[in-house]
Amino acid sequence: MPETPAIDIESWVCPAPLRDAPNIVMGHGGGGAMSAELIEHLFLPAFGPAAEAGLGDAAVITVGDARLAFSTDSFVVKPLTFPGGTIGDLAVNGTVNDLAMAGARPLVLSTAFILEEGTALQDIAHVAQAVGTAALAAGVKLVTGDTKVVDTGHGDGVFINTTGIGVVDPRADIRPQRAAPGDVVIVSGDIGVHGVAVMSCREGLEFGTTVASDTAPLHGLVAAMIDTGADVHALRDPTRGGVAATLNEIARAAQVGVTLDERTLPIPAEVRDACGLLGLDPLQVANEGKLLAFVPPGDAKRVLAAMLDHPLGVRAAVIGRCVAEHPGMVVARTALGGTRVVDLPLGEQLPRIC
Amino acid sequence: MPETPAIDIESWVCPAPLRDAPNIVMGHGGGGAMSAELIEHLFLPAFGPAAEAGLGDAAVITVGDARLAFSTDSFVVKPLTFPGGTIGDLAVNGTVNDLAMAGARPLVLSTAFILEEGTALQDIAHVAQAVGTAALAAGVKLVTGDTKVVDTGHGDGVFINTTGIGVVDPRADIRPQRAAPGDVVIVSGDIGVHGVAVMSCREGLEFGTTVASDTAPLHGLVAAMIDTGADVHALRDPTRGGVAATLNEIARAAQVGVTLDERTLPIPAEVRDACGLLGLDPLQVANEGKLLAFVPPGDAKRVLAAMLDHPLGVRAAVIGRCVAEHPGMVVARTALGGTRVVDLPLGEQLPRIC
């Protein structure tokens, strides 16, 4: 029987970047520098040769004559229901979007629920109905699932994992590594909306706002972009860690620089106000229905036009450029004419936002 | 934007089978009758038309020229480490086996961790190393992942979801519905071992035993069975709810009866003793490295021979028959010569066993 060899736990030493926090802290789940360290210095070395390098948002694998995208996400957002959505539609759209960012048309999803003892069946029915409605809207089938129950005090109502398979468009070769100097950086609409919507109803923090989560499936928008014939280089939905984390990840993956023009960032006044109130940078706030695109300069005009024509891209805007200078770094020109480094967030700015 | 329509939560009424427990109880996660009711009466109606009927252990989908198996499972076993394994190898082997039970060769897995704030990185490294080792042993690649962190008191150390894709053997058409009267029922080895191993080290319950979990990847054994040229009708690994739950599920899916001969059940003495101590029926105790096969009578001899030749089938045994009588029911001939109904367990006999 293939047994797990005995592992000498005592001999495992936290690598330097993790040593300051020998236990898991909320920041390890923030999608920023601490998350990256946990993956790079703990998970990947521990997984060993079984891990395919990267463990990116979506893997692309070839089976027979098909190129498939494959992606997983767990959702632990708190509260379960917030203005504009629930954990249920977030769980569907989140995985649909990870597939879409690889240029794939989503086909099927699995849904796995971890339920806490004592949770009202009515609340679960509400969430499950949102899962079904969002799947129907996104055109994906729910084909397999799992349900586990944990005792009170060892869960939090409902956690959902969704994992999806999509078929990659044969015209597409979309990955962070392809971002290249000269590329135009386009965002598909207003940023910071999901994070502010969830925080506005967080216990102990309620504040009045009309902002509703932007949770939405983006594969139709991506298809419209590819249909222009453009060679889209990189796509990513700026969820945890926001636009700042996503641009830094792409800059590092492709070893290019990114320059932003802060004046062109579409940030709704309500988001700006809420971020001011909470001491947050809108660039670091999560989105659940937006994408960032890196597009060659010759293709940018038609891609932007196609986005503006799509219901989920009506507020699309060019927000920056990819440059050869400062590889791995994102630099913003501020409204006052200065420049600032837009860093990868360290840890958790808004815990359990998705 | 495709929005989730407002759901009138107040109007949702627990269907009759769920009405006795308007909140989630541990039994809903036991893999027995209550789990089935939750899926049938809450999840499937709530998912609506987006759900493909069944939501079985593994879905089989066709993409291009390939038939793919697709399966998901979350693991919440307590404690994280137990005699013979950890949550890490359980998470790999569990999903590998769900793919294998559809006659598929597992290709890739996703791994999604929900970590509790305060968990020692060393414990997570230990679990992640077990994931990597088990994946290497099973020949599956870990190609994509996710990590979320929840605050202390809202998780329990480590929960893992694994979701897998496999390629279905073109010779195989293996599904519960194909079980047919006359089929011989074969088990691949000793039963009840995993459940007893986990319970033996459960806090507040420690008892001395030499039993170690049987967690193991079964796709090699399944390939050996298919390689005989036999038309294997149905395969299932008897995890939560044990052999009793699995045989009842197959009997109901195919509307056939199953008769067991209790004297032929391979139950180790230690398992029998522990079950006596705990008041458990070994038929209801979870296994993580065993399978049940329904094989046409003409094929049974060579399938059994192939199993006995395989390291994971050396204790394989014929334990019963599929019959036309009492469709949907499992009946056992007891050692004393009587008969008893082996029912689907109601709820949770051993909570958080996987």
Description of the structure:
Two copies of one chain form a homodimer. In chain A, the strands form three sheets. Chain A has a seven-stranded mixed β-sheet with strand order 9-11-8-12-10-13-14. Chain A has eight helices and 14 strands. The longest helix of chain A is centred in the middle third of the chain and has 18 residues, at 121-138. The model of chain A is unreliable at 1-7 (pLDDT under 50). Chain A has two domains: 57-170, 60s Ribosomal Protein L30, Chain: A, CATH 3.30.1330; 176-341, Phosphoribosyl-aminoimidazole Synthetase, Chain A, domain 2 (Alpha-Beta Complex), CATH 3.90.650.10. The first copy, chain A, has helices at 33-47, 87-100, 121-138, 193-199, 219-226, 242-254, 269-278, 297-309, and strands at residues 59-63, 66-75, 81-82, 85-86, 104-116, 141-150, 158-168, 184-187, 234-236, 257-261, 292-295, 317-323, 330-333, 339-341. The first copy, chain A, is globular, with a radius of gyration of 20 Å. Chain A is of the alpha+beta class and 354 residues long. In chain A, helix 2 runs parallel beside helix 3, helix 2 runs parallel beside helix 5 (219-226) and helix 5 (219-226) crosses helix 8. Chains A and B meet through helix 1, strand 1, strand 2, strand 4 and strand 5 of A and helix 1, strand 1, strand 2, strand 4 and strand 5 of B.
